[in-house]
Amino acid sequence: MNDPSSNDSSSDQSGQTEYDPYITQQEPSGTEQAPQLSGTPPTYPPFPPQGPGFPTPPTGTANGLGTAALVLGISGAVVGWVPVLGCLGWVACILAIVFGVIGITRANSGRATNNRAAMAGLGLGIAGLVLGVIAAATLELEVASIEGEDPRTETTLAETGPENSEEDADDTAEADGAESADESAGVGDGIWEVGSEVEPGTYVTTVPDTGVVNSCYVARLSGFSGEFDELIANDNLSEGARGRVTISENDAGVEFTGGCEWEAASESNAVELGDSAGDGVWEVGSEIQPGTYVTQAEGEGAVDSCYVARLSGFSMDIDEIIANNNIDAGAQGRITIEDSDAGVKFSGGCTWSRD
Fold it and tell me: What is the CATH number of the domain that holds 237?
C-alpha cells in the first residue's frame, strides 16, 4: 500500500499544490492577484432607467360617444334649419349634446382620448339646435303673414285692459257698418267667415286688366288653421279672366286675394259673350250659349297651351268636371257645350269662337 505521507512529500518536493476552486489561492508576492472565487454567485448592477420616448397610450379607451357626438352635431347643424327635415336635425342635435357631455367627462377621467371631438360635437349640437329654433320661428311668422294673420300683432282684452272695452265696442260697430257697405259693393281680399261675414251662394268677378302681370286667387276653406287639409278647393284667375265660385253653407270660410272684387252673381252682372269667349268660368245660358266652339292655340312652347273644361257646377270641386282637354301650342281645339252643362272654363289665353 502507498503511504499518504509519501504523496504529500512528493507534492512538496515538486513545489506544486492541488487546485481547489473553493479555497482562496495565495499568489506569490510581487504579482497581480487573480480574482477571488467564492461560493456566492456574483451580482450585477441594475440596468439604467429607460430614456425619454413616446408615452404608451392608455388601453381600453372609450372614444365612441365623443365621435358619435361630432357626427351627430355636424348632421344636426346641417339639417336642423331645413323645413320638414328640421325635426330630425333637432333629434341629432340633442343626442350630440348628450354624447358630447359624456365624451368630455370620459376624456377628463382618462377613459377616452378624443376630448376635442366631444367638445366640437357638443358645440355643433347647441348651435344646430339654436339655428333650428330660429328657422322654425321665422317660418311660422312667414306663414302667418302670408295668411294675413301675424301673431306679432295679435292682442287680447287682457292686454288692452277693461277700460278700453267700450272704445273697442264702438270701433267694432263702426267696422261692422263699413263691412256691410263693402258687402253691398263686393267682397275684397281677405279670409271671410261664411254665414257671419259672407253669405253662401255664387260669386263672380273679373280680374282687372292693368297692363301688368296680375292674377286673383279664391279658395274655399273648412277651417282657419292654415293647414293644407282645410283647403276644400281653389283656383287662380289670370289677368282679364272671369271668375265664378259657389260657396257652400257647409264651408267655414272663403279666401280672396289679388285685388279682385267679388259680387253675388245675378242677371245684372252677367256678361253676354256673343259668339266668342276668352279666359274665365262662364255660365251656360246666361253668358255663353250651347254649341260647338273652336280655337287655335298660339305659340310654340309647352307654356303656350290652352285648357277647356265642361262643368256641372261652380264649387271648383274635381267631381264637377264633366270633361276637359289641353290644347298644345299651335294646335286647334274644339269643344261642344251641352244645354245641360252648368258652365265652361277656358284658360291659357285662347279665344274660342262658336262654329
Answer: 2.60.120
